[in-house]
């Protein structure tokens, strides 16, 4: 790996951490799990994986990561959130628990479990702005969707019915779906390029 290879962490509190580590390595990043503030301090970018957003919120507080990560996001750390990770990057949540906290950073309102329960999970082709080579396979598992966005948020993908499922604001990227489960690493490559550009 060259000196231009960014170090990208995967928040390893729960969720599909291993799949993201593999996808990032395939997209030419040095990937490592992040569980502690000192590990967070060493990365050029961070992926927040799927999982359960209320549990992730509690574990981030327990492991002392909530405030350090909020601070780094404010300072411009590139972060990519998938599914529950999208929820954790939202400034506001609908259908969340009253005590649920997020890292925030993207001026959007996200609805938890918007597509229904686990047995209503589905896959569909998704055209994502900034990703060349045709649509990506979107895997939606108890996924959120974006209800509304502020003026600084770029909408990267919608489903056929207009539902917003991928957004970007500055160095922050979020998708409702799980590209790490498909073997197609183009969305991760987009994020790696974002991290390189921010260094």
Task: Summarize this structure briefly.
This protein is α/β, with parallel strands linked by helices and 199 residues long. The protein is built from 6 helices and 12 strands.
Give the proportion of residues in helices: 25-40%
How many DSSP H or I helices? 6
Q: What is the CA-atom radius of gyration, in angstroms? A: 15 Å
Straight-line N-to-C gap: 16 Å
Tell the overall outline: globular
Summarize the biggest pleated sheet.
7 strands, mixed
What's the arrangement of strands in the largest beta sheet? Answer: 2-1-3-4-12-11-10
String of helices and strands: EHEHEHHEHEEEEEEEEH
- The oligomeric status of these chains comes to single chain
The total strand number stands at 12
Residue runs with pLDDT of under 50 for 5 or more positions: none
Structure classification: alpha/beta
Instruction: Give the overall average pLDDT.
Output: 93
Strand content: 25-35%
Provide structural commentary:
- This protein is an alpha/beta fold.
- It contains six helices and twelve strands.
- The protein has helices at residues 17-26, 37-40, 53-62, 66-74, 84-89, 186-198; strands at residues 7-11, 30-34, 45-48, 79-82, 90-94, 106-111, 122-126, 136-140, 145-149, 154-158, 164-169, 172-175.
- The strands form three sheets. A seven-stranded mixed β-sheet has the order 2-1-3-4-12-11-10. A three-stranded mixed β-sheet has the order 5-6-9.
- A hairpin with a 2-residue loop joins β11 and β12 (172-175).
- It is globular.
- The two termini are 16 Å apart.
């Amino acid at each position: 790996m060259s000196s231009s290879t960014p170090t990208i962490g995967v928040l390893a509190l729960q969720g599909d951490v291993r799949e993201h580590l593999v996808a990032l390595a395939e997209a030419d990043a040095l990937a490592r799990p992040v569980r502690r503030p000192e590990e967070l301090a060493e990365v050029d970018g961070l992926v927040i994986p799927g999982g359960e957003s209320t549990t992730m919120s509690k574990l981030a507080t327990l492991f002392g990561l909530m405030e350090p990560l909020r601070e780094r996001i404010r300072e411009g750390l590139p972060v990519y959130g998938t599914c529950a990770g999208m929820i954790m990057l939202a400034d506001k949540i609908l259908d969340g628990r009253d005590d649920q906290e997020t890292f925030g950073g993207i001026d959007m309102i996200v609805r938890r479990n918007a597509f229904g329960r686990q047995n209503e999970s589905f896959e569909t082709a998704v055209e994502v702005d900034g990703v060349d080579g045709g649509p990506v396979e979107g895997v939606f598992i108890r996924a959120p969707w974006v209800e509304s966005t502020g003026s600084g948020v770029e909408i990267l993908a919608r489903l056929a019915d207009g539902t917003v499922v991928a957004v970007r604001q500055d160095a922050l990227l979020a998708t409702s779906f799980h590209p790490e489960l498909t073997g197609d690493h183009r969305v991760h490559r987009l994020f790696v390029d974002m991290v390189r550009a921010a260094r």
